[in-house]
Every structure is written in C-alpha cells, then in structure tokens.
Amino acid sequence: MNWIQDIVNVDRINMDALPRLTAEQTADRLGVKLETLYAYVARGRLSRQRTADGSSFDPLEIERFAATRRRRPAHDSGHSEGRPLMVIETRFALIEDGELSYRGRPVDELIGEPFETVAHWALTGEWDASARFDPGAGLESARIAAAALPAAAGDRDRQLVAATALAAADPLRASLDPAVVASAAERLVAGMVEVLPTSASRDGSDGSAGSLARRLLERLRPTGSEDTVAADTALLNAALVLLLDHDMAVSTLAARAAASARATPYGVVISGLGALDSSLHGNASRAAHRLLERVADGTDPARAIADAVVTTHGPVPGFGQPLYPEGDPRARLLLGMLSAEPRHERATAAVDAVAQVIRDRTGAHPNVDLALGALTLALGMRDDAGEVVFATARTVGWMVHALDEYAQPPLRLRPVGRYVGP
Question: What is the model's pLDDT at position 224?
Fold first, then answer.
C-alpha cells in the first residue's frame, strides 16, 4: 500500500528540493541563446536567482514556460531527416510566443518595407531597398497560354499556366545553383503577376509600372481612385509580406518534397500551387470574403455564420489558428491597417460583427484568412482575389524552402509506407 500513499502525498513533496538549473542548462532546455534567455528575464517573463556561482532558474517554471512556446529545443527533435514524424528544420520563419518573425525580425517591422526587398532578402540574404522583379523572357508566351484558357478559368489558373510557360522559356530551368534559383524565383513571381489581365492593359498600357504590389493591385481591382492608390498598395504590400512564409504548411511540405527529389525551381512552385488550391488552405479567404460580404450587405451575422458553416462543411471560415491560441498576429496587423482607414468601415464593421459572435460562442480569434477576405472586400476585389495574393507571396517562401532543401541529401523526404490492406 506504500505506493498508494506515495501517489496520494505527491503534492506534499518539497518542490524547493528540486535542483535548480544553470543559465546554460535553461537556455539549452528552451533551445535559445543565453542572450535570449536574459531578454526573457528582463521582460519579466522568467525569474532567476543570483548567487556567487551565477544565475539559477526554477525547473518547474521553465517547463511551464517551455510548454507555452512554439519553438522546441534542438535536442528534443534532433536533426530529423523528415521521417517518421516529419519534423523539418527551417531557417526562415519562426513562430514563437504567439508572434511571427523572419530570420529574427518580427513581421510587424517588415510590413512597411517593399515586398520585393523582403523577398530578395529571403532568397539571397541581401537587403536591397531598390530590388525590383521583372519577368524577363517567356512573358508573352505565358500571356498567350493564359489567354487560351476557358472563360471559366480564374486568375489562379492563369498563374499556374504562367509557371509552366516561364519554365519552358528558361534555358537554366534545371540549374540548382542558389543564385540562379533566386533569380528564377524573382522572375517567376513577376510573371505570375504580369500574366493577369488588367483594365489598364485594355487601354493600351502594359500595366508594368510601379512596385509588384502596385502592379498586382491594378490587376485585382477593376477600378480605383488615384488618391487612394498609395494607401491601398501599402495594404496589399503588407499582406504579401505577411503571407511570404509560415511554418510547415501543406503547400510548403509539397514544395520541399519536390525539392527533395531535385525538381526544378519551377516544378517546386507548381507542386506548391497544387497543394495550395484547397478550401482548407490557400482558398480559405474566398469563403471568408463571402461571409463578410453578406454581413456587410445587411444579413444578420449569426445567420451568415450558420450558412457559411453549412456551405463549407467545416469550421467558420477565417477563425482559429492552432499555432496562435491567443490570436493570429498576421490578422491583427492587417485588420489594424484596414480599421485605420475610415473608408474601409463597411468591411471592418462586418469583421467586428462576425468576430463578436464567434468570440461569444467559441472564443476563437480571427486568422489571416479572415483578414485577407476583409482586405479583398474593402478594396473592391473579387472573392477569389485572396487566393492570388496568397499564391504570389508564398511562391517566394516555397523557393526559400527549396534552396534549403537542395542543400540536404536528396530524397530524404520520401516517407515509408506501411501496408494495412487485406
């Protein structure tokens, strides 16, 4: 019976008797540098005791803190080769403490920078404020191929066709040299924008002036006042930066698997586009746009939500993100920019009305899909425009992952099947 008493009296154990952790042990447990550990202490997130031998930390407090963080220490997963748990080390996007950063820089510090500058830095490691993406050779063939699609084709279909046409025009398409891959990525992203039809092009202009965000705005919004173009371009630019990369999404896994097999950079992007074409992933903003539009047009929020759930056969579109229990920072940033513009009150009021119902019923927070749906609604775009914004931005992220994967042993992401049939 002694073992029963041990269980019953476990809460009487003197927790102060547990050995304390040194700073080095604590940093190793959390998988951070000592500088980061002391930054947590300075911000009041962790406590420490100072002795003649140095700082020490409460192991139970450290375990509780570790459980709230997204990042895991290196020794917890090891240098996984991608199987059997598919833990893949990444070097660009980090989700930690409910925030997203790129190579250690919080995204809220990057959304005001030109997308081309951030994307070029992601691809090459070089910060170039004057970076500009041009499609180069193959654009005309891509436009012809896109124009030959059926009338029911969408802009995402045009982007997919453009990737194939631009690949065919690139004599170095099979090169895996990092500089060549980065250059191909920049041309491909530009081509995926330039291949889309614009009202300007119908008037005889090629619509190729300005930043990539400006060019994309001209293609996704049929009309727009000149005095609002700068502000709307800034909104779209921020969305592109926020969507550039994010953990190991399904489309990113598809892109890395293709790169593991040494697919060309264009093949990597085509793989990613295939996985992105899903109502549970890249197309989720379309349902969010439709939901917000109904509320903005006067439908009762609860009724619109109920209808959306029936239509999607799943959760309420635009809410919940398991990596951010306290709310998606990308949504917070983008919705914050929208609400700062009084002319977007129709869209932001719809967001507030829907969010209030969901918060009262489930406690879920808006995610980036809702923010993207609100953005496309506010800017007068079609309900599928968010898919194009997502695909354009994430193409850079896939290429960043491809560059990383090309440096790894080939075919390391080939899983092992287990037969469970008759």
Answer: 67
CA angle 48, 52, 55 (to 5 degrees): 20
Give which of 249, 214, 194 is closest to 116, Cα–Cα. Answer: 214
Query: Confidence class of residue 209 from pLDDT cuts 50, 70 and 90?
Result: low
Confidence of residue 350 (pLDDT cuts 50, 70, 90): very high
Backbone angles phi, psi at 305, to 5 degrees: -65, -45
pLDDT tens across 250-290, in order? 999 999 999 999 999 999 999 999 999 998 888 999 999 99
Q: What is the dihedral of CA 249, 255, 256, 260, to 10 degrees?
A: 160
**What tokens were used for 2?**
């002694």
DSSP string, 111-166: TTS-HHHHHHHHHHS---TT------TTHHHHHHHHHTS-TT--HHHHHHHHHHHH
Spatial contact of 123 and 186, defined as CB atoms under 8 Å apart? yes
**Residue 199, token pair as written in the block:** 């009202």
User: Cis omega before residue 301 (within 30°)?
Assistant: no
Q: Give the chain's domains with CATH numbers.
A: 16-107 (1.10.1660), 108-281+384-406 (1.10.580.10), 284-378 (1.10.230.10)
